[in-house]
Amino acid sequence: MVRRQILFPLLAGVVALLHVGVAQAADPRLDEADQAIQKAIALLQAAQNPSNPQQFNGHRKAAVHDLEQARKQIVKAKTFADKPPKDNNKGKGKGKDKGKQGEGKKN
User: Fold this and answer.
1) pLDDT-derived band at 83, boundaries 50, 70, 90
2) Minimal CA–CA distance to 26: which of 65, 66, 95, 82?
3) Are 64 and 44 in contact, with CB atoms under 8 Å apart?
4) How many separate domains does the chain show?
5) DSSP assignment letter at 95
6) Whole-angstrom Cα distance, residue 92 to residue 52?
7) What integer is the mean pLDDT of 6-26?
8) Is residue 106 part of a domain?
9) Radius of gyration of the chain (CA)
10) How far, in Å, CA of 63 to CA of 69, rounded?
């Protein structure tokens, strides 16, 4: 019993510290959007059109394809959000002040 009283708070503290150290840069709504898209894909794939043997004339298939593309874009957005920003000013300004030598001064 004493072990449990000591071990549990210790483990809870370790878990809390680990959780604090995890950086989640991407907006959690991206995950929600991805889950909604997964549900939409499942619903579209389960949809039936008994009055038409062509099953929605390819429109359902196109919608599923577009939703799968949207999921790929969400992955790219999350990857971008998790990357540190690049320093775009590196290398700029080198040679910027170069010009024709001797220009401006006349003897």
Assistant:
1) confident
2) 82
3) yes
4) 1
5) T
6) 62
7) 53
8) no
9) 29
10) 10
**Long-range contacts, 37-46 (Cβ 8 Å, 24+):** 37/67, 37/70, 37/71, 37/74, 38/71, 40/67, 41/67, 41/68
Side chain identity, residue 50:
P
Alpha carbon distance 37, 40 (integer Å): 5
Token pair, residue 40, equals 């939409």
Residues in the chain: 107
What tens digit of pLDDT does each residue of 36-73 get? 999 999 999 999 988 887 889 899 999 999 999 999 99
Q: What is the pLDDT of residue 93?
A: 59
What pLDDT score was predicted for residue 106?
Answer: 56
* Domain residue limits at 76: 57-83
- Which comes out higher in pLDDT, residue 79 or 2? 79
Is residue 76 domain-resident? yes
Count CB-CB contacts under 10 A for residue 40: 14
Residue 34 falls inside a structural domain: no
**Predicted TM-score of the model (pTM):** 0.56
**Is residue 33 domain-resident?**
no
Q: Which SS3 state, helix, strand or coil, does residue 81 take? A: helix
